[in-house]
Amino acid sequence: MLNIDRDLGRFKDIVKGRVRKDLRKHMSSKELVGKQGKKLVSIPLPQIGIPRLRYGKNDKGVGQGDGQGQGPGQGQQAGDSPGEHVLEVDFTVEELAEIMGEELELPRIEPKGAQDARTVKHLYKGISRIGPESLRHTKRTYRQALKRTVASGGFDPVKPTIIPIKDDKRYRTFVEEKEPRSSALLIYMMDVSGSMGNEQKEIVRAQAFWLDAWIRLHYDDVATRFIIHDAAAREVDRDTFFRTRESGGTLISSAYSLAVEIIEKEYPLEDWNIYPFHFSDGDNWSSADTRKCVELLRDKLVPWSNQFSYAQVDSQYGSGQFIKDLHEHFAEEEKVVTSRVPNRDAIMDSIKELLQAGR
């Protein structure tokens, strides 16, 4: 059994090494994100098949001949070289996040702010004279009956008989203990106007998967909210977030305003570590709306958040201006982090840029 466990551990180390080696490919893979289950993610890995011995007559001696029958009426024999196969290996999201963190050398996140008690545990630490029979403490009951019998002079060491009465019975009682739990709110916002095509959305989807995995590794409770916007913003579910495409203009401030509204109504700042992520190709309708975005960020979203992250996905139709506006107005603000994602190959670098501060 120990040998099996040791071999299994070696196999896992080998597989993790292969995943780490090809991490850039996996981080940009549509297939990986598509194979995500409730708790596990299947990663396809190339595997060399095990060679098989072929038995038969060998007239030429060991190591001689080409191993192929060439005479009349003879078909080509089955080869004996190893075949190329694909093995799907299941990882938990936490395991993938750990691999990514090690490879990208990401600092661990330290939850900030006062954390309210999120759960209440019932621990059976006390003893009571009353309670249900299902919680009767046998040893304490017997001990009490023994003490009473000895004290009354009714104990016979030759024929010791201990019969508990009602007053002897003792019961377990629970006490409530509040357990502090760290909580994080992730707000994903994305421009879904006509300039954001399917390729841009797939890049965002891959990034969101890894961002989500890393942050969940550090918090007990994680809530996610999804906002899409063109000229107006609305909250949607996860599936709609990655599939919707609209036409028309873009007003980024509509998404920021909705994010502010959600936080104000449902997420007390003293209880939550807040992470807004915005994905766009950099287009905004007007400089006036950009000024409104700056105001919302400066007065509310940035002060409220552990970090505000903006990832700009290159598009042939997008101007790419908004990231420049953020650099102009928030050059000295450490909690505003930006990243440019020109293509799928840049996803890994973008993730590192967004997470390297450890906020």
Written description of the protein model:
The chain has about 350 residues and is an alpha/beta fold. The chain folds into 3 domains: about 1-50 and about 80-105, no CATH class; about 115-180, no CATH class; about 180-355, von Willebrand factor, type A domain (Rossmann fold, 3-Layer(aba) Sandwich), CATH 3.40.50. The protein has helices at about 1-20, 25, 30-35, 95-105, 140-150, 200-215, 240-245, 250-265, 285-305, 320-330, 345-355; strands at about 40-50, 85-90, 115-130, 170-180, 185-190, 220-230, 235, 275-280, 310-315, 335-340. The strands form 3 sheets. The chain has a 6-stranded mixed sheet with strand order 7-6-5-8-9-10, sandwiched between helices. β8, α9 (about 285-305) and β9 form a beta-alpha-beta unit. α4 (about 95-105) packs across α6 (about 200-215), α6 (about 200-215) packs across α11 and α8 runs parallel beside α9. It is elongated, with a radius of gyration of 32 Å. It starts with a helix and ends with a helix. Residues about 65-75 have low confidence and may be disordered.
